[in-house]
Design goal:
Distance between the termini: 23 Å
Oligomer: single chain
Radius of gyration: 18 Å
Structural class: mainly alpha
Shape: globular
Strand content: under 5%
Helix content: over 70%
Number of strands: 0
């Protein structure tokens, strides 16, 4: 019991640090919850719960940047909550065995997005800069994309931030602070409504989730204090290493049974 408490607290702490500096904290917290014996779907739901507090506090920190786009906020929130709810519902309809087999593929997808997210976003910004006056069809496609992004977030939390940034780049946003604020707003909305459905279906493991949540908040606070002194490129490399190692572990464990 003591080992589990310390292990999850440390996982949450380092996950919080990574989320604050480079993103990718779920590559630490989600596998940690599975490692202590929580079934995959419950671990995923619990990880969403544990991550949400950081999204909310970050949204509050960027409230000024977010308020500059108040005309589009209502539509963004409505689509995000519908997508998040739908993604969570899909997760709950997925058999445990099927979701377990999907984990390495989801982790691989999130890892690729994390590794190449910067290049993807740069490319999308170039595309959006040439299409500042998008047609109504383009606007509709962007809303469909936001719904898809939110659905993914409700189904599987890892990599959500990178996907949202890609959507925002395609939507024509260029200010990084505004993009981070809107990213956290969408993440908060998706997670809150997904969590509501998870609570209704009793799939959140509260004890372990609260431990990870506490560690995440502590890690986020510490990172905020020392982030300027940390070599962010090296932190990013660590996240990439952790994401690849975790993905390989799940592929070997699930498809060979050797671990």
């Amino acid at each position: 019991m003591l080992f589990e408490l310390v292990f999850l607290l440390l996982a949450g702490f380092f996950g919080g640090v990574l989320n604050s500096i480079a993103g990718g904290g779920s590559f630490i917290t989600f596998p940690a919850l599975i490692f202590v014996g929580i079934p995959p779907i419950m671990a995923n739901a619990t990880n969403t719960f544990a991550s949400c507090a950081g999204y909310i506090s970050g949204t509050y920190a960027f409230r000024k940047e977010i308020s500059d786009h108040k005309d589009e906020l209502l539509l963004i929130i409505i689509i995000s909550l519908i997508g998040g709810f739908f993604g969570a519902w899909l997760l709950l309809q997925t058999p445990e065995a099927v979701f377990r087999e999907a984990i390495p593929w989801l982790m691989l997808f999130a890892s690729v997005l994390f590794i190449f997210g910067g290049k993807i976003n740069s490319g999308l910004k170039k595309i959006s800069s040439h299409h500042q006056h998008a047609s109504s069809i383009g606007g509709a496609l962007l809303l469909i994309m936001l719904f898809g992004v939110s659905t993914y977030g409700g189904f599987f939390n890892a990599g959500l931030g990178i996907i949202i940034l890609s959507y925002l780049a395609l939507a024509g946003h260029t200010n990084i602070n505004t993009m981070n604020g809107l990213k956290l707003l969408v993440s908060s909305t998706v997670s809150l409504f997904a969590i509501g459905l998870f609570i209704y279906n009793d799939v959140i493991v509260w004890y372990q989730g609260t431990i990870v949540l506490s560690g995440t908040l502590a890690g986020g606070y510490v990172a905020a204090q020392v982030s300027r002194q940390l070599p962010q490129q090296q932190v990013r490399r660590f996240v990439i290493f952790a994401s690849i190692a975790t993905t390989v572990y799940f592929f070997v464990d699930i498809y060979t049974g050797l671990l």
